[in-house]
Amino acid sequence: MSTEVPAPPAGLILPSYQRPAGVHPPLDTPGYRSSLLRAPKRPLVPLAQGLTEVTGPLLGAERVTAADTDLTTRHGGQPLGERIILTGRVLDSGGRPVPDTLVEIWQANASGRYAHRVDDHDAPLDPNFDGAGRCMTDSGGRYRFITIKPGAYPWKNHLNAWRPAHVHFSLFGRAFTQRLITQMYFPGDPLFAQDPIFNSVPDPKARERLIARFDLGLTQPEWALGYEWDIVLRGRDATAFEPEEGQQ
Amino acid sequence: MRLLLTPSQTVGPFLAIGLPWPDGPFAVPEGTAGAISIGGLVLDGAGEPVTDALIETWQAAPDGSFAHPDDVRGPGAAWQPGAGAAALPGAGAEPGAALPGTGGFRGFGRCATDREGLYRIITLRPGALPGADGRTEAPHIDVSVFARGLLDRVVTRIYFPDETAANAADPVLAAITADDRRATLIAAAAPGAGPGAFRFDIRLQGGRETVFFDV
To answer: Does the distance separating the beta carbons of B205 and A40 come in below 8 Å?
Structure first.
């Protein structure tokens, strides 16, 4: 799948970001029916990373409040379901934490129903759960949410198709190249094998990186189960952006 | 140490729960001097509107600068943020236009498509940028498209129809040799909507499929 990448800009000293060869799902994944009319058919055109690509929006703090990290206390009463603490770090592939970056999540309720007008799954809405959260990572790149474990739900992709329980995550990092939206899953879910979205990631080891780890150490007695999930964004190529090493 | 990347997954049909912001479409407040609008349809391979997509835009300020530490043309560089259009041919800077952090210009826009498949962003015209091999990149806006059915975002660029000379010299456009393919990256003046209104439809698939980039 490797394509020839145009030369980086000359005369400008810019970082360059690792190309994620082989990690992400192919856009053309026929087993996921919604991709049939939406995935582009033409090959992607390689784009040299210039100023627009190595910069990106550094924002979010002004739109996040402490209440946004706790999805269980936003309404009159407690949502139904299994309360969980969901935490981890946002890192780049060089192992560096990504501090002060916006993390946005959304998810179904404990019954597997989204608070969205087009979700017609015959399962109850929960008046005490809207399913949206956001936070900023701290100086060590850590995020932390309190929420409930989402339920599995049926969808009409194929006969008897069910999505494994998951939480949607949206990450910015610090550059346009680092933007990532993905889904976090829970360990041991029996629905993995039949899910074309989870299995759209070609490498089984990469798929495992979408699964959080249950952590008894994070679990708070008499209150909530703890899960940890680190997210790794594209890092800078090792040779780039080190002016003292010479630039060419 | 190299850590292995987290794979992408689709946003699914319910992104509207978590992603749209009330002020998302406004990279500058509506009514800002020099503000432009860019909007259009997102269409699938059958020509049907995609009503559950999210469009995000990222771009330079009118003077070609980014409010970002990796815009390395900082103090001491030959070209500095704020140097304005004089430093670069083809820059779309307008006198008195907002600079990053000073005029409420965010550089970033986000808009979900509506029930007709339409999106719309209010922003300022970006400036030209120094690009590959010392060539100048014409004013452009980077675009991410997210939707159910897309297992990873797709990325395209918006160029401006009235930047003929700058577009002709742009290294990214020049690398796309087929005229009809290159044309998918150039916005149109929105008919009857005034001088600052542009139309940019995004065709995910089909005969006039938009050019998407591997960044």
So the answer is: yes
Shortest distance, CA A224 to any CA of chain B (angstroms)? 23
Which chain B residues contact residue A114 at CB under 8 A?
14, 17
Least confident span in A4-18, A136-150, B171-185? A4-18
Cβ A232–B6 below 8 Å, yes or no?
yes
Which chain A residues have a beta carbon less than 8 Å from that of B121?
Answer: none
| CA separation for the pair B128, A89 (Å, rounded) | 36
Q: What percent of chain B has pLDDT over 90?
A: 75
Q: How far is CA B204 from CA B42, B144, B146, in A?
A: 7, 12, 11
Chain B contact for A102, CB < 8 A? no
Distance of CA B132 to the CA centre of its chain: 19
Average pLDDT of the segment spanning A50-61 = 93
Say if the Cβ atoms of B151 and A200 lie within 8 Å: yes
- Identify whether A168 is a catalytic site residue: yes
Which residue in A134, A163, A174, A234 is the catalytic one?
A: A163
- Paired residues of B43 in beta bridges: B49, B203
Provide the 8-state DSSP code for B206: S
The more confident residue out of B1 and A35 is: A35
CA of B195 to nearest chain A CA: how many angstroms apart?
Answer: 25
Task: Kindly state whether A10 is in contact with chain B, defined as any CB-CB distance less than 8 angstroms.
Answer: yes
Once rounded to an integer, what is the mean pLDDT over residues A89-114?
97
pTM of the predicted protein model: 0.91
Query: What is the CA angle B186-B187-B191, rounded to 5?
Result: 140
The predicted-structure confidence for B52-84, as pLDDT tens digits, reads as follows 999 999 999 999 999 898 887 753 333 333 433
- Region of B171 please: left (phi>0), alpha (psi -120 to 50) or beta: alpha
| pLDDT at residue A238 is higher than 80 | no
Active site residue A227: no
In the set A153, A174, A185, A227, the catalytic residue is A153
